[in-house]
Amino acid sequence: MALHVDIFTLFPEMFEGPLTESILKRAQEMGALSIGLHDIRDYTTDRHHTADDTPYGGGGGMVMKVKPLVAAIEAVVPPGEGVPVILLSPQGRVFTQAVAQELAGYGRLALVCGHYEGVDERVRELVITDEISIGDYVLTGGELAAMVVVDAVARLLPGVLGDPDAPDKDSHAAGLLEHPHYTRPPQYRGLEVPEVLLSGHAARIDEWRRRESIRRTWQRRPDLLLDAPLTEADREFLYTLAEEEIKRREEATDDEP
Ligand code: 4FV
Fold first, then answer.
1. Ligand 1 binding pocket mutation candidate from 8, 9, 124, 138 (most atoms within 8 A of CB)
2. Phi–psi pair at 251, nearest 5 degrees
3. 22-29 and 143-154 helices cross at what angle (nearest 10)?
4. Is the dihedral of CA 234, 240, 246, 252 positive or negative?
5. Splitting the chain (257 residues) into consecutive groups of 10 residues, what average pLDDT does each group show?
6. Are 4 and 34 in contact (CB under 8 A)?
7. pLDDT (0 to 100) of residue 169
8. 111 and 147 in contact (C-beta within 8 Å)?
9. Going by CA atoms, what residue is nearest to atom 15 of ligand 1?
10. How far is the CA of 140 from the centre of ligand 1 (A)?
11. Nearest to 148 by CA among 103, 205, 193
12. Which of 9, 46, 149, 153 has the fewest Cβ atoms within 10 Å of its own Cβ atom?
């Protein structure tokens, strides 16, 4: 199913590069993805095209005005069709591969990019149906977050990635981090490509990749292992990693004076 994404922003030109290169460009050319860029300032009614104002209650910074934003969204997003209207903000639910897969199931999405201190709260009450954060840090605007969401969702659309199975092999797609990748040359500065990858033995290669995914997840994101779908063989391998770690620590304490 093709996906149409409307993006509401005060800086539409920021989207030039990311949406007009590489995979996102091809996704649009092949009709899997279409983007509507909407300048919120076009929906202001005063001659200065004012889209932000000082906060009630004082305090520094500016707040995006409710009227231009609501006018823009109501002019573009058809009401009652269940189109998610997503505000990008640090207060949103955290964006993950699972959320990307969820959003890739829609035919239409609307992304709202805040700026300055944020948007007037009545925007949330009147038109926002969902709120997403790309991480626990503060950006200057929601534009980069919107690009991240469009990129992660677009590559899940049928036919966008050359290898249709690629999304299923993604880091996080299977709840684990991805295994190491290698390509030519077979040796570089004395570093060899693991023999198994040159063996042509598909089953042994898959087993090696599964183990390396588990090893990397154990080393870097053990928290992911709690929810990852693991086979009995995966658990067996994890126990060996845990035993190795325990032995390593025991030896480390033995060596201490
Ligand atoms: C953000 C995030 C984010 C907050 C104030 C824009 C900024 C400014 N958006 N994930 N993290 N937004 O920091 O999505 O309005």
1. 138
2. -60, -40
3. 60
4. negative
5. 95 94 94 97 96 95 97 94 97 96 97 96 98 97 98 94 73 84 97 97 96 96 92 96 93 84
6. yes
7. 67
8. no
9. 115
10. 7
11. 103
12. 46
